[in-house]
Amino acid sequence: MNNLLRKFFIVIIIIIFLIAFSPSYHSSNVGNVAVVVAMGLDVSDTNKLNITFQFTNASSVTETGSSEKTEPTLFSIDASSINSAMNLMNTNIGKEVNLSHCKLIVFSEELASTGIEEEIYTLLNNPDIRPSANIVVSKSTAKTYMKNSKPTLENLITKYYETFVNSSQFTGYNSNATIGDFFYSMTCDACEPYAILGGISSENSASLSNSSSPSNDTAKSAFIPSSGQYISENTGLAVFRGGTLVGELNEIENLCFMILDNKVDGFLLSIPNPQKSDSFIDVYITPVLNTKVDAKIVNDSPFITIDCNFSGRVYSIDESVNYSDSNTLSQLSNYCNSYLESILSDYLYKTSKELNSDINKFGKFIRKNFSTESKYQDYNWSEQYKNSFFDVNVDCSIKSSFLLTRT
Prior knowledge:
14 strands; 5-stranded mixed β-sheet; 15 helices; single chain; 9-stranded mixed β-sheet; GMP Synthetase, Chain A, domain 3; alpha/beta
């Protein structure tokens, strides 16, 4: 009996090992899925949407230590919806499209101007899509933008898509805009959504259009790579009202957005030299305190007060200027205060009067002026923001350079 029982257990163990290590087909197996690292949505001539999937080898996603550069592959397909496009793509490539590693979602400016609410809801309803995926509005077609997104200083395109927004913390010229935040702001009654503004560098746009004049595909900033290669760029902000694109912000306006949202650790500013005409001084500005916002209702109009506190260090050195002199530093501080107050005010009145889009979430400060939620809803903040007035106060204290002092 004991021998029979022992043989029975041996047979069971052999069967388990055979099942565990035998080749099998399952849709979740790495070899049977097509890993999407980016998705682009354009207007189609023949159907509602033209959707571009950017695929990469699964190993380039999972093997973080690999130094081998993997070239991504683009496939485009016309479809009536995102889900239909995925079904058609599954059929065409013989693998299951997997969005769990999708780092970037790109909408063309043309499509975003008509409204992308349905596409945002569809994407967030897919359990594979991560809310942390960045969202870009491209001034070129989404396919062109993705085709020219090159990991110049990275080996893997997936790593590039993860890190290209990191510079926002120390320049303020772009933003970390995710689809999760976009969805929240689109459904929020106290704010509006935004996305990264993308495009193709001016040299590349001219080459692509075979024209000597700048192309409409060019992003706000004209970054020209020394290598002469085609390259996408991401500077500025695409501003939405609900799910519809209503305008864009350049780099300086993006910096203002970052300052008011307390999302920038420091930034470089060029201000006029108070002791030498036709020259500028570079000053690195660091926030000392979070931006303080106070919002009231005055004569039925929103009145919003902004208080910013900064410190600054002189970066550029002119031998003819005494940077240790207190009067010189006081003049520089005054110039900084005036300049920052000016650009912040211009930004605020642009987002309110021109775009009527509260991307800085001032609505949450206005809400406290109402005794009940129903009264706040009746006030209709999304329409009232354009009637806002602003009082911007900046206190910036400039100090001399880090290392060079007068002896």
